[in-house]
Design goal:
This protein is α/β, with parallel strands linked by helices and about 220 residues long. The protein has helices spanning about 5-15, 50-65, 80-90, 135-145, 160-170, 180-190, 200-205, 215, and strands spanning about 20-25, 30, 35, 40, 75, 95-100, 110-115, 120-130, 150-155, 175. The radius of gyration is 17 Å and the shape is globular. The chain starts with a helix and ends with a helix.
Length: about 220
C-alpha cells in the first residue's frame, strides 16, 4: 500500500482525535460477526469536521493520481463510501455513481445507482475495509456492468490477511490512506494506549476470530 508515512500518521491522528477510531483493549467491542474487537472505527464522523474532511479528500485524490491515474468515474461503496466518493468526484470534476450491497427489491431493482457505461474505468471509494467481502461485492457489480475497475481507495483497513487474499483473488488493488500500524503508533504517541497494550492489539489483528482479551493478557 503506497502512501506517505507522514500523511498516514496525520490521518491516524485525526481519526483518534475525533474518536472516529476508538481503542479499548481491556473492554472490547462486539462486532456483528461475533468477534471481540479492541478497536471500533466509524470514519463517517470525519464528515462533520471540515478541516479533517478536506484533508482526507485531498489525500484520496493524491492517492488516486499516484497509484491509478484519472478514471472515467468515481464510485462510492454504500453507505460509508458515498459521501467520500462525492467529495472526491467533485474534486476531479468526474461523474459519481454508488453501489449498493445488493440490488434493491423495488423499482428498477438497481444495484448501481447513477449512470455508467460498459468500458468506462472506475475507482471505488470506501471508508473502511475489514475482510473486504462487502467492498468486493461492489467490484463484482461494476465488472458485471462492463466497467473496468482500476482499484479501490479506502480511508482505513485493519490489514487482515483474509482481506489481502480476497483483494488479490479479485485482482483488485487496494490502497489506504492510513492503516492499523499507523493508528497504533499514533495512539501510543498521544497516550490513547500504553506500550503494554501492543501485544494484545497485534494478537487480535493476527487472529481476530479467536482473540479473547483475557487470554491475550
Amino acid at each position: 500500500m503506497n502512501y506517505s508515512f507522514n500523511s498516514s500518521h496525520k490521518v491516524a491522528e485525526f481519526l483518534l482525535q475525533i474518536k472516529a477510531v476508538s481503542l479499548r483493549p481491556e473492554d472490547p467491542y462486539k462486532w456483528a460477526s461475533g468477534w471481540n474487537s479492541p478497536i471500533y472505527c466509524d470514519n463517517r464522523k470525519t464528515l462533520s469536521y471540515p478541516r479533517i474532511r478536506t484533508f482526507i479528500r485531498q489525500e484520496i485524490v493524491k492517492t488516486i493520481d499516484e497509484n491509478f491515474g484519472r478514471p472515467d468515474l468515481i464510485a462510492g461503496v454504500a453507505t460509508g463510501g458515498i459521501a467520500q466518493g462525492a467529495l472526491v468526484a467533485q474534486e476531479f470534476g468526474l461523474p459519481l455513481i454508488y453501489v449498493r450491497p445488493s440490488a434493491k427489491a423495488h423499482g428498477t431493482q438497481s444495484q448501481i445507482e447513477g449512470v455508467c457505461e460498459s468500458g468506462q474505468s472506475v475507482i471505488l471509494i470506501e471508508d473502511l475495509v475489514s475482510t473486504g467481502k462487502s467492498s468486493l461485492a461492489a467490484v463484482d457489480a461494476l465488472r458485471d456492468a462492463g466497467c473496468i475497475v482500476k482499484g479501490m481507495v479506502a480511508v482505513f483497513s485493519y490489514g487482515f490477511d483474509i482481506a489481502r487474499k480476497n483483494f488479490l483473488d479479485h485482482k483488485c488493488p487496494l490502497v489506504t490512506i492510513t492503516d492499523y500500524e499507523s493508528i497504533l503508533s499514533k495512539a501510543i504517541e498521544t497516550n490513547f494506549i500504553q506500550e503494554s497494550d501492543l501485544e494484545s492489539l497485534n494478537e487480535w489483528r493476527t487472529n481476530p476470530a479467536e482473540w479473547n482479551p483475557q487470554i491475550a493478557k
